[in-house]
Design goal:
The protein has 251 residues and is of the alpha/beta class. The protein has one domain (1-34, 47-249): 2-Layer Sandwich (archaeoglobus fulgidus dsm 4304 fold), CATH 3.30.2170.10. The chain is 29% helix and 25% strand. Helix 2 (101-118) packs parallel to helix 3. The longest helix has 20 residues, at 3-22.
Length: 251
């Protein structure tokens, strides 16, 4: 069997696994958190949010096989690092666009398992993933994949726009950024040709600018979190363009 045939069979198997896992995906808030302690909208039954995780896989320059799997836990609302886990890993699965989870997610799961063993009291209530959630051709990116496997609420936070359902980084998108993202916290929905809202473009910092318009981040539902909550929480965690949970894993 040729390499091309092997690759095609692998991709088809991954597609089936994605669709099977997607059946367990939850895109609404399973827990209502107090995002602002002084918010009048808080209900007495709302859960206080205290610990947020951030995960990423970082590669040394010029090396696409060896990497560092990173997990950071920060306090909320203080946004201070309270736990770190960094492990060098060797990736054996090929990089295939749309299937990043099958290359990286096992190492992120291992980081979470180590946390459970070492510091179970530090388990995060939600995890921000440097990547996409449902902003994905099959509605199941790495943030959703990680959330379903671990059964922990997750949010996808991407630095670049994933072209899905006719959404692309063109003239119209640039115009939306220029008109709708004037101040920190401003956002607009990423609506595809199908009418589906895949995520939100968010201006996360007053300084997140590049000529001639600001440079947003792209927030999408991962698992067990609604889009509205995801955007509010990401914005609340931003001192700079990248929210602290995923910014700290890359430092």
């Amino acid at each position: 069997m040729s390499y091309l045939q092997d690759q095609e069979e692998l991709i088809e198997r991954w597609k089936r696994e994605q669709l099977t896992l997607k059946e367990k995906l939850v895109t609404i808030d399973k827990v209502k958190w107090k995002l602002k302690l002084d918010d009048d909208d808080n209900d007495d039954n709302d859960e206080r949010l205290t610990l947020i995780g951030g995960v990423d896989i970082s590669f040394p320059k010029g090396d696409d096989v060896h990497a560092c799997a990173c997990l950071v836990i920060i306090s909320y609302p203080g946004l201070e690092v309270v736990y770190e886990d960094f492990a060098m890993v060797h990736l054996t699965s090929p990089y295939v666009p749309e299937f990043l989870a099958f290359r990286e997610v096992e190492f992120l799961v291992e980081s979470i398992k180590r946390l459970q063993q070492r510091k179970p009291d530090m388990m995060p209530q939600v995890i921000m993933v440097d990547g996409n959630g449902i902003l994905h051709p099959r509605g199941f990116g790495i943030a959703s994949h990680l959330g379903v496997i671990t059964d922990i609420p997750t949010i996808g936070v991407a630095k670049n726009l994933f072209h899905v359902d006719g959404i692309e980084k063109g003239e119209e998108h640039t115009k939306q950024i220029s008109c709708l993202l004037q101040d920190k916290g401003n956002s607009f929905p990423l609506v595809g040709k199908s009418g589906t809202t895949w995520g939100m473009a968010l201006r996360s910092s007053k300084k997140s600018t590049t000529t001639p318009v600001c440079k947003p981040i792209y927030v999408s539902v991962g698992h067990k979190v609604s889009l509205d909550t995801a955007v509010k929480l990401v914005d609340a965690c931003c001192r700079y363009r990248i929210p602290e949970p995923t910014r700290q894993v890359r430092k």
